Automatic annotation (TrEMBL):
It comes from Drosophila sechellia (Fruit fly). Its main location: mitochondrion. InterPro entries: Cyt_c_Oxase_assmbl_COX16. The gene is Dsec\GM25787. This is Cytochrome c oxidase assembly protein COX16 homolog, mitochondrial. It is found in: Mitochondrion inner membrane. Residues 80-93 have a biased composition (Basic and acidic residues). The lineage of its organism: Eukaryota, Metazoa, Ecdysozoa, Arthropoda, Hexapoda. The chain crosses the membrane at residues 20-37. GO terms for cellular component: mitochondrial inner membrane. Belongs to the COX16 family. Keywords: Membrane, Mitochondrion, Mitochondrion inner membrane, Transmembrane, Transmembrane helix. It holds the Pfam family COX16. One of its GO terms (biological process) is mitochondrial respiratory chain complex IV assembly.
Amino acid sequence: MSLVDKLNYYSTRKSFKYGIPFLIMMVAGSFGLQQFSNLRYQYAKKQPVTPEEMKKYGVSMKNRKDVTLESEYDKVKSVDIENWENKRGPRPWEEEDQPSTAKH
């Protein structure tokens, strides 16, 4: 049997047709997953941004003690959710100076 005959014989087998690509995907996937895991652990060691750093860039941060779940809930509770109007945003193909009026 020549090499071509053996290749033709094995290419008709299901284990060769589906098993070999599966094993290749498993091995390649493990190497890809290793790269993503390295990124995860590489950036997990970073320190959080301090308020002093944010002030340097012009962003004002609230004090952590001032922002609590209860205070944010009180803000949301005061919003009137029964009376609202749906406003349609501009589409890229529409002119910006035209008011958008939806007719149904």
